[in-house]
Amino acid sequence: MTWCRVLGLLSGTSMDGVDVAAAELRLDGDTVELRPLGASVLRYPGVLHEKLLAVLPSARNGAAEQCGAEDLCQLDTYVGQQFAAAARLGVELAGGRADLVASLGQTLYHWVQGSGRVRGTLQIGQPAWIAEATGLPVVSDLRARDVASGGQGAPLAGVFDALWLADEPGTTVALNIGGIANITVVGGRCPLAYDTGPGNALIDLAARRVTGVPQDTDGRIAATGTVHPQLLEELRADAYYRRPAPKSTGKEYFNADYLTRALDKLHDEVSAGDLLATLTELTARTIADACRTEQAAKVVASGGGVRNPVLLAALRRRLDVPLVVSDELGMPADSKEAFLTALLGFLTWHGITGNTPGTTGATVPRVLGSITPGSGALRLPEPATEQPKRLRLQLA
C-alpha cells in the first residue's frame, strides 16, 4: 500500500489549544507503519479558552451561565475555525501536501451515569471548517460510534498502544497524563484501557486559584509543600477509583466544585504548597494503584504530565516497576495523542475498526467516525482485507 499523509488534530481536557501532528502511514501486511513528519500546538485565543472553561459544569452557578443553543453554536464554530487553522499548520508540517485530516475535536461533555455507563459524549469543532480551509476530507466524531456500541468512548488510545507495544515482553502499561490520566494494558490477561482518574485536572485548578495561571509549571508550587494526610484520604475515598474497568471520566466530574467540596470537609486551612503537593500525590498514587492492579512489568508514559518533574518523581516512588517516557521509544510524549488521532483517521479511511471491545467496553469492533468530503468528490480507497496486529515507527 502507498503512503497516506494524515493530519491528526485534538484538544484535550485542558482546553488550552489544538495539538496537531502530521504523519505518513501505510499498511504492510498486518503492520501499520507510521512515519512522523512533525507536530505542534496552536493555542486557543484567551477569550475562547475562557468561554470553553465557562461552559463546564463546574462553572455553572446560575441560569444566566447555562450554555444555550446560541452559545453552543458559537463555540462549535469558533473551535472549528481554530481546528481549521491548526490543520493549515499541519499541512505545512507535512511539506505542503496531505491526503486526509482526522479530528477528535474538543470534548465539552462526557455523559456518564451513576452506574458508570456512558450514555453520550459531545465533541465540538465543526469539521466543515477544516474541510473548507484545507480542501481535504475530514474524519471526525470518532467517539460516538464506540459509545453507541456499548463502549465508554474513551480512552481510544487502546488501539494505538496495543499495536505499538505489541512486541514488548510481559505486561506493559501505556500511561497518558493529560487533564485526565488513562492507561492501556498491553500483553496482560485481557485487552484493557481506562481512565484512572485526574491527571493534571485538579492540579491545574488549584494552581489557577493560587496564581491565576492554570498550571503548576515544573511542579514548583507542589515542591514547596508537603502532603496533607486528611485531604489526601478524603480524595482517595472517592468511589470512582473502586469502580471496575472499563471506565471513563472527565472534568464534568473532577472539577472546581469537586475540589471545593473536599476542602470544605477539612477543619483547617491548607496552604498553597500543601494543596498542590497533595493533588500531585493523588494523581501519582491513583495511577500507581491502577498499574499495580494490572500487574504492570513496565510503564511507558506520555502526555503533558510527564513534563512535571515533581509528579514524575512521585509516580516513580509509588511504582515498583520501571517507568520510561515515550520519547525514549521514539514517540514524542507531547504529541502522542495527535499521532493517535492520525492513526484513527487512517484506520477509518481504510475501513478498519478503530476500537478494541476489551478496552472501551464496546460489545463489537466498529469503524469509527463520520467523513466530511473535501473540495472534490469523495473517493475512498479499497477497504483493507487484514486487521493490523502491530504498529512500527519509521524514524528518521
UniProtKB/TrEMBL annotation:
Highest taxon, organism lineage: Bacteria
Entry EC number(s): 2.7.1.170
Keyword Nucleotide-binding tagged: yes
Keyword entries, A-Z: ATP-binding, Carbohydrate metabolism, Kinase, Nucleotide-binding, Transferase
Leader sequence residues: none
Pathway entry: Cell wall biogenesis; peptidoglycan recycling; Amino-sugar metabolism; 1,6-anhydro-N-acetylmuramate degradation
Classification via HAMAP family: AnhMurNAc_kinase (MF_01270)
Function: Catalyzes the specific phosphorylation of 1,6-anhydro-N-acetylmuramic acid (anhMurNAc) with the simultaneous cleavage of the 1,6-anhydro ring, generating MurNAc-6-P. Is required for the utilization of anhMurNAc either imported from the medium or derived from its own cell wall murein, and thus plays a role in cell wall recycling.
Family to which the UniProt record says this protein belongs: Belongs to the anhydro-N-acetylmuramic acid kinase family.
UniProt protein name: Anhydro-N-acetylmuramic acid kinase
Species whose genome carries this gene: Saccharopolyspora phatthalungensis
